[in-house]
């Protein structure tokens, strides 16, 4: 343990809908685990409260057992029992809540996407606080995430502080302002919150519909600390376009709002120890990267006739946010420039999935293009290791992980300057950025011309400056994208907030 002498040991409890790897849909799950592990390493006591989903990866939970005492919590005018389980995930203590409600709230075979999501997760937010109260926890920080547990903030101040759960400051992290958890105002009553008191413009009322409640807005108003997942995204959401209706709320609460770039799990993503790879390699010995390129080409039946032919990759959910039109364009432009292209992605949007299936069929036996339209963790590792470049042409990107993983594997990112991409990818030709930080190729305008410019510069560099490219690969592999420094920023925010509240209590 490396508890810094200047900081007190904090007790932090995350209340979240996801935690990697047991219950992961997207980046939120990675953040809960990555941040918690890093804080635990710094000597803090970190615990997590999750729903007990039927579709969780139970084989990754150690010592799962039920507590003797059920926790009763409120829903729609009645009390319901919750069976409480404890277990360890990635070395972190976790409480799992299993509601004994006939609605089988977390027994649906999927994490989200149910008609009653708003009620299921407002129920969970309340049950989690009830658990903390009943087992006598005295956390310094309760950290909630995204709209699913945004209810924790108003529930804490309105209902739980009066009951005696009053030691904590509330931190809320929004991982994507696209998803705001709105519902008809009356639905808020199911978790016991007072609709009349909260459906007001300065509280939880949605900024564009007076009869709707916005749970993210509630968390912004009622939390002590509000964060999002990169400094640039924190700026973008303050604008009318980027804030999806919440920019004015963020302005009113701007003093407590900051952007902190996510880290990546550098143990899971490490080319020197990655068992998915044909050959492991590191920044000092990148020969193995070429062998992985050969291996991937063989596996995917791509031509191997030119070792130096650049291999371009893309690993993504195929949704509008990710710039699908530019991804499609990139396939054709890469071919024209004499490269090879591999796409690993799938789409929850039927017409996008169909469109890419057509493209995949078109290139079915092409020697330079392969589209694999599914989610495949092991293949993603091979692609990061095998590719020379990875494209991330997002329209908006709160943080983004693939650019950081790509760099760790020596695949040079070609990224649009937006959100977290703008905070982690710096153009090799940008004179305004100190040379030591330059690590990839970027473009600003989200159109084909903008993208072409970055791709062509990358191809020219790759072809005409073999040594320079090798140095760039080695440099990118050496960049520290671990949670260490981001966790220190959270630690500082927590500690300051706790100190402020203690000072206020003394006064
Ligand atoms: P988002 O959370 O918006 O999907 P991020 O860049 O934050 O985007 O995280 C994406 C994560 O999901 C990365 O770890 C990436 O490797 C992984 N991923 C995305 N699509 C696939 C896929 N089809 N197969 C395997 N992994 C994928």
Any descriptors?
alpha/beta, six-stranded parallel beta sheet, single chain, 36% helix, 17 helices, Rossmann fold, ten-stranded mixed beta sheet, binds adenosine-5'-diphosphate, 507 residues
Describe what this molecule looks like in 3D.
48% of the residues are buried. α2 crosses α4 and α10 (324-336) crosses α15. β10 (205-206) and β11 (209-214) form a beta hairpin. The protein has two domains: 11-263 and 485-506, 3-Layer(aba) Sandwich (Rossmann fold); 287-481, Glycogen Phosphorylase B (Rossmann fold). It contains 17 helices and 19 strands. The strands form three sheets. Strands 1, 2, 3, 4, 5, 6, 7, 8, 12 and 13 form a ten-stranded mixed sheet that branches. Strands 16-15-14-17-18-19 form a six-stranded parallel sheet, with helices on both faces. The chain is α/β, with parallel strands linked by helices and 507 residues long. The protein has helices at 27-41, 117-134, 146-150, 152-160, 195-198, 215-222, 231-236, 247-252, 287-300, 324-336, 350-362, 377-386, 402-408, 419-422, 448-464, 466-477, 484-506, and strands at 11-15, 45-51, 62-66, 71-75, 78-89, 92-99, 141-145, 169-174, 182-184, 205-206, 209-214, 225-228, 257-259, 311-317, 340-346, 369-372, 389-392, 412-416, 441-443. The structure holds adenosine-5'-diphosphate.
| Total domains | 2
Number of DSSP strands? Answer: 19
Percent strand equals 15-25%
Major beta-sheet overview:
10 strands, mixed
Q: Percent of residues in helical segments?
A: 25-40%
CATH superfamily of the largest domain: Glycogen Phosphorylase B
Q: Give the overall shape, derived from the CA principal axes.
A: elongated
CATH architecture of the largest domain: 3-Layer(aba) Sandwich
Q: Name the ligand types.
A: adenosine-5'-diphosphate
Terminal residue distance: 34 Å
Structural class: alpha/beta
Number of helical runs? 17
Q: Radius of gyration in whole Å, from Cα?
A: 24 Å
- pLDDT averaged over residues: 96
The low-confidence parts are none
CATH class of the largest domain: Alpha Beta
